[in-house]
Design goal:
With about 240 residues, the chain is mainly alpha-helical. The chain is built from eight helices and three strands, in the order H-E-H-E-H-H-H-E-H-H-H. It has a three-stranded parallel beta sheet with strand order 1-2-3, with helices on one face. Helix 1 runs parallel beside helix 2, helix 2 packs parallel to helix 5 and helix 6 packs across helix 7.
Length: about 240
């Protein structure tokens, strides 16, 4: 059974609340695969003083550890937790700023950078640190994100006290998709939802899912569990859906 506890914009602190709705029986269920991914939420906010409202490395460590300690009481033995690094969202401004926002297509008079300025003026934007014409602020936000990714790496490398699951780290798959897409000659804006210019498109999400699977299969295949011995039956019943 798959369960999605995500909420758009949720931070590591919010996760401490949302994780309470995790539905798992630690004595009867099969081992679980938990993907813990904040993407950029702990460094993104709408505040004028965006830096002060970012999650510090110390707080981030406490939040992540709080989540893992809860999972230790909830997950079946033999489970796996994947800590996913944060993205470098600075690439978004470079890709989107000078392009026309959908609201400006008719009269050719509204760029994304102008929308960002309005967002920040009204303090309603999803990420003042990266969706900002201030290049220094964008660099500060990326540095903050990198610090939090380093926290995840250290936890995955050094934290061995949990008995019901092992902990692993993987780079942000959206970042990997962007890098691969650009290397193949694509443009970053083609991967981004045009209305909010922050989240991946539906097609990009499919690419992200493939990237996650490929990384796990190539680096830690044991977390994927054994091959389903009923795959042939699934293909027979749902062949037109790729076996799903």
């Amino acid at each position: 059974m798959a369960q999605n506890l995500a909420r758009n914009g949720a931070t590591s602190r919010d996760t401490l609340e949302y994780m309470q709705s995790l539905s798992r029986n630690p004595t009867e269920d099969h081992p679980a695969l938990v993907i813990y991914s904040m993407v950029g939420n702990d460094v993104c906010n709408e505040q004028e003083d965006t830096i002060r409202h970012m999650t510090s490395p110390t707080e981030f460590y406490e939040n992540v550890m709080g989540t893992l300690e809860f999972l230790e009481t909830t997950l079946p033995p033999g489970s796996h937790v994947i800590l996913v690094g944060l993205i470098d969202g600075a690439i978004l401004y470079k890709a989107m700023a000078d392009r026309l926002h959908p609201l400006g297509l008719l009269r050719q008079d509204l760029t994304y950078s102008q929308v960002y300025d309005w967002f920040n003026c009204m303090e309603i934007g999803p990420c003042a640190g990266w969706m900002n014409s201030n290049s220094t602020l964008r660099k500060i936000t990326t540095n903050a994100a990198n610090q939090l990714s380093n926290v995840l790496k250290k936890i995955a490398k050094k934290e061995k006290k949990f008995t019901r699951f092992d902990v692993h780290y993987m780079p942000n798959p959206f970042q990997e998709v962007i890098n691969d897409w650009v290397a193949s000659g694509g443009k970053v804006w083609q991967l981004i939802e045009p209305v909010d210019s922050l989240h991946p498109t539906q097609v990009t999400q499919k690419m992200i899912a493939k990237s996650i699977w490929s990384f796990l299969e190539g680096n830690m295949p044991h977390v994927l569990g054994p091959i389903n011995d009923r795959n042939d039956q699934i293909e027979e019943l749902c062949g037109g859906q790729g076996g799903h």
